[in-house]
Write a structure and sequence with these properties.
By secondary structure, this protein is of the alpha+beta class. Helix content is about 25%, strand content about 35%. It comes from Cohnella nanjingensis.
Length: about 375
Amino acid sequence: MSTEQTIIQFEQVTKRYDDGETVLKSVSFEIERGKFYTLLGPSGCGKTTILRLIAGFLEPSEGEIRFDGKVINRVPANERLVNTVFQDYALFPHLNVFENVAFGLRIKKLKQAAVEAKVLEALRFVNLKGYEKREITELSGGQRQRVAIARAIVNEPEVLLLDEPLSALDLKLRTEMQYELRELQRRLGITFIFVTHDQEEALAMSDEIFVMKEGTIQQSGTPTDIYDEPINRFVADFIGESNIVPGSMAEDYRVQFAGKTFECVDGGLRPNEPVEIVIRPEDLEITTPERGKLQVKVDTQLFRGVHYEIVGYDEAGNEWMVHSTKKVEVGERIGLDFDPEAIHVMRFGETEEEFDKRLLAYEEIGHDQ
């Protein structure tokens, strides 16, 4: 990544609270300009702490945070070119929409004409033109969120931080706001850093995702990379539904699991090395037992609207989940077919750094993993 593209850098950043709890552990990453990033992980993993460190609400215990190449560890929040949209929006109930959005501009003592122009432009950006005189209590949840975003972007930040801003909305409105936020980011052309524990939100909206667990970044990459090539069991299990079964490498491009040997597209591991196998439910096709690579007895079946969620067990006792439009019967024996590309091989406990080194070494000897 070129230095000109990089706007934020974390270099071995640790955050430790006064009670001794360490919530971030030597975290390093870079953020590029003009992209939509998501910090994804369960509650307590450190994602909101990263947001607060960027915003200037916290200082790191160790390491450096850089903005445009300059260390900002102790730069006050009001001097940083970032703005935050909080989970509860933090709007002023005694001010109308216009005055909520204008609040930061008034603190800067801009002239009234400039304030009016900037506020109206920000409201137009978030599709709230004509709402200037509305009271906050008169707005829906989605409209309040738009006001909070307008208040943030009116100050022309280089980075917009969003701390789970969709969590209070119902499912339909959350989906609508995902599209709106993504489109807003594209129109503004600034960097968005979005915090969520919802993997569907992360996959739908992001240019790049950081998957977090217990104060560390487990894996980073595009939504496709994260979903198709999870680095370990935690990522595979956290990002969507996964079938994860034990296996071992037979040789490059051949792996053993469920008592059989299958072709795959992964290499770079030792023969007989224990591994974990990931196959997504939608990559399994139901066929007859005779034609299937695996034979499974159906245990449960649930209708999920667009597909059936079928769970069964193979002869080795492995559980398999299948997403299919085909309806089967509980107790029925079915075959499961899949392509070699559907098999993802993971080394036990491998970190992203170790995976990258293995991939690089494998490519250097003339193989394409």
